[in-house]
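Fold Annotation — chain and its backbone

Fields — amino acid sequence, structure tokens

___
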Amino acid sequence: MKITLFGYEFIVQKAHALQQMASEKKVNTSLKKIKEALERMEQKQTKYSEYALQKESGVSINTIKKYRAEIDTIRANQKGLFA
């Protein structure tokens, strides 16, 4: 969709599509940080807790609680991760 305003042409995308793209990027970034932190914790042989993961990954504790199911899946897929 093109809009002309004061002689300038602007191409406008739908706000919903842009919000959805930003949301997906945020989720992917958060899960990437969490996965890398889990790998570092495994290498250091650090005991797992949500608060330790928060400290290691740098993401909010609320984000960690939000993605708890995904974190459990990642931990289950990594062999020998935490006793």
